[in-house]
What does this fold into?
Amino acid sequence: MFTGIDEVDWASLRHAYGSAADVPGLLRGLASADAAEREVALDGMYGSVHHQGNVYDSTLACVPFLFALASRPEVRDRGAIVELLVSIGAESAGARARAAVRAGAEALVPLADDPCPGVRRAVPGALVRFLDEPDRVLALLRRRLTDERDAQVLLALTEALGLFVRCRPDRAAGALELLAVQSGPPYPPTARLAALGQLGLGAPERLPSDLVPAAVRLLRERSERRTAGPDRVEADTLVGRIRRLRPSDEEGSYLLRTLHRALADRVADRIALLVGQLSSPDPMDRCNAVWMSAGLFRGWRADFTAPVSLIGRQLDREQDQLRDAAVSVLVELFGLAAPAADELHALVTVRPDLWVHTWERGRPSLGGPLKALARSGDPRAVPALAQLLARPVVPGGLGFEIVHLGPAAAPLAPALRRRLGLVDPGSPEAAELAAPLLAAVTALKDPAAVPEVLRLLRGAPDGLGAREALVGQAVRTLDLLGTAARAAAPVLRGLLDTRHAALAAGALWSAEGDVAAVLPVLLRELAHGRNRGPRTAAEQLGRLGAAARGALPALRRLAGSGRVWERVAAAEALWRIDGDPAPALPVFRAAWSQNPYTRGAIAGCLAAMGPAGAPLRDLVTAELAGTRRHTARPGGYGSHDIAQDERLLADCRRALASSAG
It folds into this structure.
């Protein structure tokens, strides 16, 4: 199986870390009788030869030897070798890689009947992808479905049928018929669930009308039959670590994930499916449902009260894994977590040890249950937060979470001022420590915090880095504090010739309202500012209203900028200064489609415009009717997008109401 391996000039080939001279050793390691050595070799193949899915000349040179290894019965873990070949030949790997694997695909055919279940499990999908004889592949899958007895291999065969339908739509009829038969009795629950998922992905019109109750029933039956397998000790390698991160019921997680992909935008059915599984007596089923819910919440808009309430009920369970999964999902929901607030509060009350999460390195952070409670806007988080603010070390980012409590956090204002007083403006950590505290002070609009904010602003050392970040944070806080920050005016004037000029001018306007002092600065930044300077200057000019009419020509030019955020800021400023919606509305309409992230700012402006914004009612109406979150991307995204999307919807409702007069 290694014939010719020494004739390859491996040293001249490359992988992710340079010369591929070590690759023959990795290939031989895959054939080792020692399990740990095989694991290390496989780890090396993924870590260097096929690093992060990349294909190198050494990767292509390995393909014939990998096929030879997969074909030798004495080699262990050949299923993993076939999986490596599939990954190398994947669509994303490029034409040369696909061609290399296809050239050897005939060697996979006898492996479909291999005595090793791991090999039989890896082969069906590989045949569908790489053997260019669809009728032969379908006949082989049909025969294996009849003969196979291993549950995991049957699952792989079902998935291969679904892949066949999607890859060969012109030959899909036979595969669809097999899936339809397998989705009903007498097949066991796992096989039927798998077939339903693949049917939905390839031919959703063939799904039964009672899909959700049928799926829930099958999930319950599957749980009743499931037995726990033996624990496997994984090697301390990349592959081993990935395996340890997999769900304890990986099969159940896969089945549920496939069903949700099949249901796609049928959000009501997906919610009903989650509710059914979250009500299961089996904690593993509930845990799978909790993890599955995260993608639904992030990507779609709906009334999630029922599943969120059920996720909240998992918080008082004895299983740590289930509780931690529920907390991790609720933390992302912000205000949508309100139906679980009672359970969150109960957990915070009885488990003060969960208030803080301690990391091996770095500052401690706010624990998930308390963070989720605060983000939901529940005032019952305030007493615990007050205790944390009184500790010698405050969890990192705590102030950012206080922001979500709004006026309910007012009792924390004195403690926040005290914590600000402990920040040394000359410390390298000053900006990191001050940022969350300043965010909270800003949200509370606490005028008594001005002396401490001004102390930080005055005491920040000269130079770049920490000073620049700290100054920007402090100036934004003073801006929001308005006339209460009059004492900061001299310091703000001293910043009018720095990179913070536009921000400082806005804060100075808030403090004193002196047009003569700020207008020339903003005009300069509008024309010559760098990076975000023109956009910030436009935003500040809009606040001046009619007093900034001298900026109209420059704002009209900026409204034609190549940067969408500059165009939006300039258009809003034009309307706020001149009161004429005509220049702003076309810019808003174009930006709304070009960059979904601008929609929040535009909707907020439309709400302020009232009837003048009526020509864009169609955009607002369509947004409110949409079921997909406006920044949704395949595979999910960060937690803040849920809060951002919910704010957009609120602004759209206000805009719609105000445009009606």
